[in-house]
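Human: I hope this is not a bother. Would you mind checking the protein record under this note? Thank you for your patience.
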Amino acid sequence: MKATRVEMMKVIELRVVDNVAAVQDNVTAMHGKTVTLACATTKGLVPLSYCRFEPPNTSPFSIDSTVSVSNPILNRYYFPPNKSLDRGDCAVTIRKVKYEDVGIWTCGAALDDGKEYTDRIKLEVKGLMSTASVTGVTGARF
């Protein structure tokens, strides 16, 4: 039997995360629809002291279960009802996502050690126009 000497290769993406990590680090949403960005503790069901988000084009904000659908930040951002800081969830739901939401979002959360841990989520928006990328809409208003 003759040896073929063919080598098999597979590329795998490796993300190194700390105590808080994005559930999905790349999210694509439809323009005008609702989308949720979420991070969670990597330590299991460990409570978070707080949760905050830094959007690419708006001021950072803290968020918890008191920020509900009926009481959103800037009439658009609220804490998803199925998430809980007590279970280690840090999440924000964006009502009627817009092209100005496109870009890198940073989620930050603190555990009982008093330190803030962060991760990043890239948000893209599809809609009437072609997919908006981070570079394609910087500074643009739609």
User: Anything to note?
Assistant: The CA atoms of residues 75 and 95 lie 8 Å apart.
